[in-house]
Specification:
Chain A is α/β, with parallel strands linked by helices. In chain A, about 35% of the residues lie in helices and about 15% in strands. By secondary structure, chain B is mostly helical. In chain B, α1 crosses α2. The chains are: A alpha/beta, B mainly alpha.
Chain lengths: ~425, ~90
């Protein structure tokens, strides 16, 4: 049978897409004819994939990421490639070489990042669901800021084959959607073992969300309601947690002492991995051509200086520094001990509780150009990075508004218990709708 | 404290071009970020690498892969099936 197609020519007022597929083909399957948007760091055969960077402008991948093959097999129509912070480095989608994405809830504010285009496309109703990637919150942050649902799967649950690497030990591809059901459906399509990614775990996701959370024990970490968390946001999330109690859950106060240094450990780890991963972008195999008559250091320095944005260069240099002779012990080695302490904290807490709940982000969406200083931008990731350091699943579900902007409730679970965090989000969503 | 010379040196190690105006900004931003990273000095324990992670390797067997034409398609300069790169010497 000839493939069918949908026509996809949205008026993209929020700059959510970098590429749209005006005739998107689809086949049979559980997602037959469903338009799915894909973050532009996930390789799509024959469709330009740039990571929102000038250094990949014009790059047409010769192969599909594993998850893209799965989407096609499920009948999905790839509607287009979404805007993002360049290489996933940012919390606002302002670090795109192709202009910022605007938040559909308020176009004067950022959609969050780095999967801001995917979140905005879903929130604006341009597509039903989207794929993003989450290295330190890049699915959950834009989901929270745009008022939709986003899941960062357990590390190893979804193949990273064909995801253009930024920080391999932290990042996962995951689903975004308007409802928990849609997110769960998309997770069912993309999860599972891939022989091309040896970090994938053979645990398919075959789950229908179940709203019964009676006898569930929910840990409430004091650090998620402490210094730096906006009182308006904290208030909305506390009310949401009371709602979980009304549904039969029990809450237990807990503490994650390693939060003290988790953010520093995260930034040392991701910049170190980035400095190695992004060494491959030199214009030789793809991207803008270097002047090959110059010596290679000069040629690469010029092409990388011109084609990488400031944040990408900043992170490559920070990582290079953290790994350099004389500093490795102070930064990278310490960060790995810190990371293990974060895991240990979660393991200890999860002996007593089933999930941990708190705000996804410490504030509502920032105004465009509000955050200019890199460190203050990094600090906004404080509540999302612990799940990446530990590898555990975490979901953000809309739970109300503060100052007219959406607030996300974050639910983190034990390693490989993605189904449980989906159930908790589903129970909450069903109760409030 | 890192100096402008340090940042210039790191940029050279990483083959990252930065211009004169950026050098001052990057240096002050680096110092603020590295000050924040000092919180790692308080980390106690020697737990790194104690997780239950283990390597999963497959047999090193030749498998079907992309054609030479597909692999070279995105390269800006090529000759006789090879990619042309800047000179090393």
């Amino acid at each position: 049978m000839a493939p069918r197609s949908i026509s996809f020519e949205p008026s993209d007022t929020y700059n959510a897409f970098l590429t749209t597929c005006s005739r998107a083909e689809y086949g049979d399957g559980p997602l037959a004819g469903t338009a799915v948007a894909v973050k532009d760091n996930i390789s799509t055969k024959g469709i330009e994939t740039t990571c929102a960077s000038k250094i990949l402008k014009g790059y047409i991948p010769p192969y599909d990421a594993y998850v893209i093959g799965l989407l096609k097999n499920a009948g999905a129509a790839i509607a287009g490639k979404t805007n993002m912070d360049e290489f996933g480095m940012g919390t606002t989608t302002e670090n795109s070489a192709f202009g910022p994405t605007l938040n559909p809830c308020n176009p004067g504010r950022v959609p969050g990042g780095s999967s801001g285009g995917s979140a905005a496309a879903v929130a604006a109703g341009m597509v039903r669901m989207a794929l993003g990637s989450d290295t330190g919150g890049s699915i959950r942050c834009p989901a929270a800021f745009c008022g939709i649902v986003g899941l960062k799967p357990s590390y190893g649950r979804v193949s990273r084959y064909g995801l253009i690497a930024y920080s391999n030990s932290l990042e996962q591809i995951g689903p975004l959607g308007k409802t928990v059901s849609d997110v769960s459906t998309l997770m069912g399509v993309i999860a599972g073992h891939d022989r091309h990614d040896s970090t994938t775990y053979d645990k398919p996701y075959n789950h229908s969300p179940n709203p019964d959370i009676k006898s569930l024990k929910v840990g409430i970490p004091q650090e998620y309601f402490g210094k730096g968390v906006d009182p308006g946001v904290a208030g909305v999330v506390k009310k949401a947690i009371e709602r979980l109690e009304e549904l039969g859950a029990t809450t237990v106060p807990c503490s994650i002492p390693s939060m003290e240094y988790a953010l520093a450990a995260y930034y040392v780890t991701c910049t170190s991995e980035a400095s190695s991963n992004l060494a491959r972008f030199d214009g030789v195999r793809y991207g803008p051509a270097p002047d090959w008559k110059k010596s290679w250091h000069d040629a690469y320095r010029d092409v990388r200086g011109e084609s990488f944005g400031a944040e990408v260069r900043r992170r490559i240099m920070l990582g290079t520094f953290a790994l350099s002779s004389g500093y490795y012990g102070k930064y990278y080695a310490k960060a790995q001990v810190a990371r293990e302490n974060v895991r240990a904290d979660f393991n200890r807490i999860f002996r007593d509780v089933d999930v941990i709940a708190g705000p996804t982000m410490p504030t509502i969406a920032f105004k465009l150009k509000e955050k200019t200083d890199p460190l203050s931008m990094y600090l906004a990731d404080i509540l999302t990075v612990p799940a990446n350091l530990a590898g555990i699943p975490s979901i953000s579900v809309p739970c109300g508004k503060s100052e007219g902007m959406p607030v996300g409730l974050q639910v983190m679970g034990r390693m490989f218990e993605d189904e449980r965090v989906v159930d908790v989000a589903f129970a909450f969503e069903q109760a409030v709708n | 404290m890192v100096t402008e010379q340090d940042v210039q040196h790191i940029a050279e190690l990483a083959d990252i071009g930065i211009n004169k105006e950026e050098l001052g900004t990057f240096t002050s931003q680096f110092n603020a970020i590295l000050d924040y990273f000092d919180t790692l000095d308080t980390v106690k324990g020697d737990a790194a690498g104690k997780s239950e992670l283990f390597n999963v390797l497959r047999e090193d067997e030749v498998e079907p892969s992309l054609s030479q034409e597909e692999v070279l398609k995105n390269a800006p300069f090529k000759e006789d099936g090879f990619i042309k790169a800047p000179r090393v010497m």
